[in-house]
Write a structure and sequence with these properties.
The complex is a heterodimer. By secondary structure, chain A is mainly alpha-helical. Chain A has a domain at 279-489. Chain A contains 20 helices and two strands. Chain A has a two-stranded antiparallel ribbon. In chain A, a hairpin with a 2-residue loop joins strand 1 and strand 2. Chain A is globular. The model of chain A has no long low-confidence stretch (mean pLDDT 86). Chain B has helices spanning 3-23, 28-54, 78-97, 99-105, 111-130, 134-153, 159-189, 194-200, 208-225, 234-240, 243-269, 276-300, 305-325, 329-360, 371-374, 376-390, 396-409, 415-442, 457-475, 478-491; strands spanning 61-62, 73-74. Chain B is built from 20 helices and two strands. Chain B is globular. In chain B, strands 1-2 form a two-stranded antiparallel sheet. Chain B is an all-alpha fold. Classes of the chains: A mainly alpha, B mainly alpha. Chain A binds chain B through residues 64, 66-67, 70, 72, 134, 137-138, 141-142, 145, 149, 152, 155, 160, 164, 167-168, 171-172, 175-176, 179-180, 183, 187, and chain B through 387, 390-394, 399, 402, 405-406, 409, 419, 423-424, 426-427, 430-431, 434, 438, 441-442, 474-477, 481.
Chain lengths: 489, 496
């Protein structure tokens, strides 16, 4: 049994790491060693909580109470446990990858980069451990602010303009919509604490519920439900490790995690299922899934295509959550993990291609599989996981989401998922085909080999994990089924 | 009588009596030391008084043993203690952080006079906060205003002269309006003591002179408090004043006027004039709202960081006025908390600007491009204080925004539009602050030099102390909340 008072260490550790990085900026090897050491220690610490939470423990710690009823408190429950595990674990791999990428590309301001990275992880841990909406909001904003310097890393006019979109959309929606939603919840219910079964029931009814849900969903811009998705393609100007952080480790995951958590713990699944005014959300999610997939079809830049793929995949999670059936809730949680492994692999591959061959456009990739077999093999696995082909992680979550949809006899969800699977296959399979089998396009330099070893190591690990997850997912399923065990199947 | 009973008088007497001694010192550094010592001692007195208020309460102090309502009385409640903390704290911050900057701005021979004027301004502002007598408030208001005009005009920037002239004219009109109002009330009731006035007004309720007096006092004080659109003196005065002076006056001087406004409108008129609160709300809320939105929008287009922050102040005063104009308990809480929190944020921001100007000799945002890379510590503190100004959770600004939003949601029928206005203006604050932050971090300095140049360690430490106070009062706001609760109790005392 671990002492509850050690919970804040999960937040403090990356902050200490950031300070250590700041003071060792002059010695790159030492600085990177501190980054890695912090990442590994953090992951060990987070994972050491896993067995306990899996056995049903719900550690809870009150930090401070700035206003009556409004507390800064931490707690661990299955969903947050999973998010903390994913983020802390992928941070290790991402650090290894960053070292290879940043050195391979001779990027400037590396110290600032690693500091902000550590701060972003601290914020992600705070989101995972938040016990109430107020704490969640605090760390949500910290995450936005700490990732801004990462997105604007290059510092030229175009990057700054894109970073402005990133910051503007995320801060704007969170202050403009999310904060009023939190205040409304507090005024209506007198609490903001995440409670299994929800706190809204009996306090709000009718169209107000749908409106509040809308404020939450669009206020959490990080989940990129259309039309608040524009920041995600804009943020593609960032270095690739940052894109991986945004797409797989922390940022968008924080978004869908927050929405899932709010639907389960603030609204309550049963309550929302019987509330007609909340039904719009599944249409919004379906629209986002299909539209993003179609837009992805038209992209010619690899990273932009991946960005739109992410937008679609995020709405899978939301769609799964609003099916509001136990199996689908499990599917939503598992999809957060499954998509993380697959998407980080794809971004790592995109970054590897950029580092080794300086290629960013899809047409340049023809025949690249023969030059960079390891990278493209990993890319293929990631892409198959996005489509949901066994034996990859993507299949597991899709299975549960579809099972939940059938359980609810929700044909909108079923057709959306099937339709988008077809679209996903349409934009990923041609790349795989051309990369392995087609001859190089004219005038494309093919005199390059694989990316640096650190990069290869990182993407091999994540690609392997994408497959391992298909066979070995029981602990996570056990954990997440606790989310819904109180619900009738 | 023990020492605590004498504190209200000491609070004014200490800076007032130190001022002539400072003038005699004839050396800039010694004068600064003496002024800082007096200012810190006043801050200490304010802390003792605050403890007294939160403990057993501070007894009314009758000057010279003449009992009120005939003699002059001094009394301190939660709101008064809050103001004293602000005034003395801002003065200490400005003096402690402004040594290097003032050494450059002020001629060494004239420095003792300057610090003397500073202490007189401090004494005047403290006097307003402790006085229980309407005419006495006017006297202290004039003392502090005249001294403030000197402070603003003391720098090397000649544009300060025209700015301060404008301030002088408008400030005098405001003070005169106030005096006319007080005169009418004296004519009708024969008293100047706030508490006595509140009692005796009942006999002459709804007479025309009283209604006119209420109008004069409200408008006069709104002028001095720079409530939009009566703010026109403020931006230029803040911009061209010596930086350390801006730290001082931006943090507290307009708030003291709002303090008197609250005293009069709630302590005196509220319980006596039928429908006064509604009238007050109808007058002040639209002005406050337009200030919140328009001044924030104007701030976006400023090229000078001091002017930008000055317009932001006009908008923030709008928040305070809006909350005060709601005439509810929650609104008054929000108003007082926002006075405290805004002073904290704005003081820190102007202190950072002092540091920027110290190294790069300009407050022009184009000339400050890239300053974030050259002065990472100072800029970091600027960002923290900026987040507090926006109202991001975890900072002091969030606490008062929260109270404000909860207070406006109670307004029947207008809750949602008011929340939308507050949120919109917070977003405008994001825009105008980020405009500078982005330039500071990613802009290229005009001469292309990006080598580090930080201000000396003590100043950096002070700036960070102020920035961390913004976070501390965001996570543990018990002190200002307790003071504001006590203040709300006395303001609405007759009604609860």
């Amino acid at each position: 049994m671990m002492a509850t008072s050690t919970l804040p260490i999960i937040l403090i550790l990356p902050l200490l790491g950031a300070i250590g990085i700041a003071f060792t900026g002059r010695w790159p090897n030492l600085r990177e060693a501190i980054s890695l050491l912090t990442a590994v220690t953090l992951a060990v610490l987070v994972f050491s909580w896993f067995p306990e939470v899996s056995d049903g423990a719900r550690p809870h710690l009150l930090l401070s109470e700035p206003l009556p009823g409004l507390t800064l408190a931490l707690s661990l429950e299955p969903l947050g446990m999973m998010f903390a595990c994913i983020a802390s674990f992928l941070w290790i791999i991402n650090t290894v990858y960053s070292i290879g990428y940043m050195r391979g590309n001779n990027e400037k301001h590396q110290t600032r980069f690693y500091i902000c990275f550590a701060l972003a992880i601290a914020a992600a841990m705070g989101i995972a451990l938040a016990d109430n909406l107020f704490t969640l909001f605090l760390f949500y904003e910290l995450l936005t602010i700490s990732t801004y310097p990462l997105v604007a890393h290059k510092g030229d006019a175009k990057t700054i303009a894109s970073a402005r979109v990133y910051l503007g959309v995320l801060l704007g929606t969170s202050i403009g919509l999310l904060l009023p939603a939190i205040i409304w919840t507090w005024v209506a219910t007198g609490t903001t604490t995440f409670t299994l079964g929800g706190i809204i029931e009996g306090k709000l009814a009718g169209p107000a519920v749908g409106l509040l849900l809308g404020l939450f969903v669009f206020g959490i811009g990080k989940a990129a439900v259309m039309p608040v998705h524009r920041w995600l393609p804009a943020a593609m100007v960032a270095p690739t490790p940052v894109s991986a952080l945004l797409h797989a480790v922390a940022v968008v995951k924080a978004g869908v995690f927050s929405i899932t958590k709010i639907i389960i713990y603030i609204f309550g699944v049963d309550f929302l299922f019987n509330e007609p005014s909340a039904q719009w959300l599944q249409f919004a999610a379906a629209f986002t899934i299909i539209t993003a997939s179609i837009i992805a079809l038209y992209q010619t830049n690899l990273k932009r295509m991946l960005a739109y793929s992410t937008i679609g995949q995020l709405s899978y999670v939301i769609m799964a959550t609003v099916i509001l059936k136990p199996l689908a809730e499990v599917g939503a949680a598992v999809h957060i993990a499954a998509h993380a492994f697959g998407k980080i692999t794809l971004f790592f591959a995109a970054g590897a291609i950029y580092t080794a061959a300086h290629k960013t456009e899809l047409w340049q990739l023809a025949g690249i599989g023969r030059r960079m077999p390891v990278t493209m093999a990993a890319f293929t696995i990631g892409a198959l996981s996005m489509i949901g082909v066994p034996p990859t992680a993507g299949f597991v979550s899709k299975w549960f989401i579809l099972a939940g949809a059938f359980q609810a006899e929700n044909y909108i969800a079923i057709f959306t998922i099937i339709g988008s699977t077809v679209l996903n296959a349409m934009y990923f399979l041609p790349i795989i085909y051309f990369a392995w089998l087609a001859p190089p396009a004219d005038g494309v330099d093919m005199n390059h080999g694989e990316a640096p070893k650190a990069i290869l190591l990182a993407l091999s690990v994540t690609a392997t994990l994408t497959i391992v997850f298909f066979f070995f997912n029981q602990p996570l399923l056990d954990l997440e089924s606790q989310l819904v065990e109180s619900l009738p199947l | 009588m023990n020492l605590v009973d004498h504190l209200p008088a000491l609070q004014v007497a200490l800076p007032l009596l130190t001022a002539p001694l400072v003038i005699l010192l004839r050396n800039g550094f010694l004068a600064w030391m003496a002024a800082l010592a007096a200012s810190l001692a006043s801050f200490g007195l304010a802390i003792l008084l605050t403890q007294g208020v939160l403990g057993d309460g501070v007894p009314e102090y009758a000057i010279g043993g003449w009992q009120p309502p005939f003699g002059i009385s001094l009394n301190v409640d939660g709101l008064g203690a809050l103001m004293l903390l602000l005034v003395t704290g801002a003065s200490s911050l400005g003096l402690a952080g402004g040594r290097l900057s003032l050494r450059r701005d002020i001629d060494n021979r004239r420095a003792p006079m300057f610090y003397g004027a500073w202490l007189i301004a401090l004494a005047g502002l403290c006097g307003i906060a402790v006085s229980g007598d309407a005419f006495n408030v006017f006297v202290f208001m004039e003392i502090s205003s005249l001294a403030t005009y000197i402070l603003i005009a003391a720098g090397r920037d000649r544009r300060a002269l025209s700015a301060v002239f404008k301030y002088l004219i408008i400030g005098t009109i405001g003070a005169t309006f106030y005096l006319i109002g007080v005169g009418f009330i004296y004519m009708m009731t024969g008293t100047l003591n706030f508490a006595d006035m509140a009692l005796r007004l009942g006999e002459v309720i709804e007479t025309r002179p009283i209604i006119i007096a209420a109008g004069f006092i409200t408008i006069g004080l709104a002028l001095k408090a720079a409530i939009f659109p009566l703010h026109i003196w403020l931006p230029r005065a803040y911009t061209y004043a010596p930086n350390a002076v801006t730290v001082f006056i931006a943090a507290c001087s307009t708030k003291v006027s709002i303090y008197v406004l609250l005293r009069f409108n709630y302590g005196v008129f509220h319980g006596n004039l039928l429908g006064h609160s509604d009238l007050f709300s109808v007058f002040i809320v639209p002005l406050a709202l337009s200030g919140i939105l328009l001044a924030s929008a104007i701030a976006i287009y400023q090229g000078n960081i001091k002017k930008l922050l000055a317009f932001s102040s006009v908008a923030q005063i709008g928040y305070i006025a809006l909350a005060a104009g709601l005439a509810t308990q929650a609104g008054l809480m929000a108003a007082q908390l926002h006075m405290f929190n805004h002073a904290l944020a704005k003081g820190t921001l102007f202190l950072c600007v002092t540091a920027f100007v110290l190294t790069s000799r300009s407050a022009n945002m184009d000339k400050l491009a890239g300053i974030g890379r050259r002065m990472p510590w100072t800029m970091g503190a600027f960002v923290i204080a900026g987040l507090s100004l926006i109202g991001v959770p975890g900072t002091a600004g969030f606490i008062s925004k929260w109270y404000l939003v909860v207070a406006v949601m109670e307004v029947p029928g207008w809750g949602i539009p008011l929340v939308v206005a507050i949120v919109a203006s917070s977003l405008l604050a994001v825009v105008y602050l980020w405009k500078f932050v982005e330039k500071a971090y990613y802009g290229t300095p005009p001469d292309g030099d990006v080598s580090a140049m930080e201000v000396p360690l003590p100043l950096r430490a002070l700036i960070w102390f102020a920035a961390l106070a913004n976070i501390y009062f965001g996570l543990a706001p018990q002190l200002p909340i307790a003071l504001a609760e006590s203040g709300t109790g006395t303001l609405l005392g007759g009604l609860l």
